[in-house]
């Protein structure tokens, strides 16, 4: 039963050769007696797009939240750019977080603030990342321009459609020019056409800023288009990994279930 | 498991609230201080309850005067009206009723607002973008509620007294000057100061419970409604407890004088 996984893993090692951006080793997380993660492993190399797939409620969001320190795993280690996040103090953790953009599942725009204020928010503590003299307005406008929504700058999030909100959220996640971007179900709740727009945008961002990304998705089309590598999260572990074609060709029942 | 026990869960809640309060004081005195957001919250909280407080205050004044007058008339003591009404409004009825309406408006508002921010991951988003959400959202709201309620109570009391004057003027032909002369003669600092101090505690309790319920809101759509609702219930209950303690303590101090 373990055979197909090991075969696939063997191939992966040859594909990825760049610098290692992050590493999750054997993390476990339980809520009460409900074991969500049971020893999950993941690496991300520079310039790579890794897709994580897993059933709803399998702990994908929990995993990605452990990664940025929003939740603490019960055991295991998480290293981002060779820094173990469990050992960092608040300030170092905040500084490290500027290297990570997080696109939340439901966009998570601050609904009491305008689009402009939403984008300014990450800058209020981390402006120094761009040196002493920096024009906040210019940064905000540039970020919105990149997602094609400059005209919405003075609107409230509630006045935007779901797809536009997702794009604004992406602009906000990118405003500090992170090296790693984490997407939590970037296309969920969107119609297929809007979903495709978001996927195109993600690829554009990837090319423009040379980022590495982890993408959690159910959307098999999205996975096919953006992934260099797929990791399947089943029963709290990294059950299988490989390219889209490799996994789609697998005859393991649990893997096949994702590609029907 | 432990939570299935109702009394047990009540004490767990008290424990968590205590921990939350401790965290508030710890974060209150550490930098950076979100001053701009505090002002914004003061404005928003004050503005949202202003109309409500004015209307409530006015009606308290009218009703108390109308209800009390016949009894005092029976004894031929209607000249005591201003002093009696003003003391009962300033010492007890004004602060408590205005705080209760404030709780209905603000505790539920804060509970729902923070609850929906929690559920939609806005609080997480703040945290990853380097702003401490406890400081930005919770500390500012609790402080704003603590600072605004006393002002609103003073305003509400004044309007209540004015309402009372209107009735006196119509029914007893008492002039504005005479009415307020009597009021200020009757009121002592020992009526006003304890009553004002206790409104700070009321405001603090309302902000605290609203934030506590919202900040730890359960996921899911029912969570937000529940947070808003239990914030009102819990903070109203707390108001009466604080009121009792305040009256008790004031009473002890008065004896020593
Ligand atoms: N804060 C929490 N407290 C208790 N249980 C949680 C919490 N967060 C997530 N869970 C549970 O962990 C499981 C995985 O959740 P999640 O990671 O959100 O799933 P998904 O893979 O769909 O993103 C779910 O069953 C959820 O109920
Ligand atoms: Mg999820």
TrEMBL record, chain B:
Record key words, sorted: Membrane, Transmembrane, Transmembrane helix, Transport
Q: Where in the cell is it found?
A: Membrane
Would I find Transmembrane among this entry's keywords? yes
Top-rank taxon of the source lineage equals Bacteria
Asked if the Swiss-Prot or TrEMBL record annotates the protein with the keyword Protein biosynthesis, the reply is: no
Which InterPro entries did the record assign?
Answer: ABC_MlaE_roteobac, Permease_MalE
Query: To which protein family does this belong?
Result: Belongs to the MlaE permease family.
**Protein name as it appears in the record:** ABC transporter permease
């Amino acid at each position: 039963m373990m055979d197909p996984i090991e075969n696939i893993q063997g191939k992966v090692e040859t594909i990825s050769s760049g610098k290692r951006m992050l590493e999750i080793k054997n993390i476990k997380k339980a809520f009460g007696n409900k074991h969500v993660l049971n020893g999950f492993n993941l690496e991300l190399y520079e310039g790579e797009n890794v897709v994580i797939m897993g059933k709803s409620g399998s702990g994908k969001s929990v995993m990605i939240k452990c990664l940025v320190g929003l939740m603490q795993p019960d055991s295991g280690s998480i290293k981002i750019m060779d820094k173990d996040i469990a050992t960092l103090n608040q300030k170092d953790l905040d500084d490290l977080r500027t290297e990570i953009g997080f696109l939340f599942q439901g966009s998570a725009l601050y609904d009491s603030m305008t689009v402009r204020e939403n984008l300014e928010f990450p800058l209020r503590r981390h402006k120094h990342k761009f040196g002493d003299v920096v024009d906040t307005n210019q940064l905000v406008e540039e970020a919105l321009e990149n997602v094609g929504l400059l005209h919405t700058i003075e609107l409230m999030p509630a006045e935007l459609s779901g797809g536009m909100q997702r794009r604004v959220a992406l602009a906000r996640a990118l405003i500090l020019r992170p090296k790693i971007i984490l997407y939590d179900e970037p296309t969920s709740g969107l119609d297929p056409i809007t979903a495709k727009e978001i996927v195109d945008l993600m690829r554009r961002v990837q090319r423009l800023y040379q980022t590495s990304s982890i993408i959690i998705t159910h959307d098999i089309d999205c996975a096919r288009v953006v992934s260099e590598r797929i990791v399947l999260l089943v029963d709290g572990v990294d059950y299988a990994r490989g390219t889209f074609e490799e996994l789609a060709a697998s005859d393991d029942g649990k893997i096949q279930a994702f590609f029907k | 498991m432990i939570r299935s026990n109702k009394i047990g869960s009540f004490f767990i809640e008290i424990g968590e609230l205590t921990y939350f309060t401790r965290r508030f004081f710890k974060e209150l005195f550490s930098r950076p201080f979100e001053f701009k957001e505090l002002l914004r919250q003061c404005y928003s909280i004050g503005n949202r309850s202003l109309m409500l407080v004015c209307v409530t205050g006015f009606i308290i004044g009218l009703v108390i005067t109308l209800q009390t007058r016949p009894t005092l008339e029976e004894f031929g003591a209607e000249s005591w009206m201003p002093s009696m009404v003003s003391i009962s409004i300033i010492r007890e009825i004004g602060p408590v009723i205005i705080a209760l309406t404030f709780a209905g408006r603000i505790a539920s508002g804060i509970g729902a607002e923070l609850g929906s921010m929690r559920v939609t991951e806005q609080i997480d988003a703040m945290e990853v973008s380097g702003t401490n959400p406890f400081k930005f959202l919770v500390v500012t709201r609790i402080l704003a509620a603590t600072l605004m309620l006393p002002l609103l109570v003073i305003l509400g009391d004044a309007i209540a007294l004015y309402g009372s004057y209107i009735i006196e003027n119509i029914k007893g032909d008492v002039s504005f000057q005479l009415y307020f002369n009597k009021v200020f003669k009757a009121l002592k600092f020992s009526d006003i100061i304890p009553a004002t101090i206790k409104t700070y505690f009321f405001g603090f309790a309302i902000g605290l419970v609203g934030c506590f319920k919202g900040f730890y809101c359960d996921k899911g759509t029912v969570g937000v409604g529940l947070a808003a609702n239990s914030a009102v219930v819990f903070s109203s209950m707390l108001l009466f407890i604080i009121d009792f303690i305040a009256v008790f303590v004031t009473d002890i101090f008065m004896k020593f004088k």
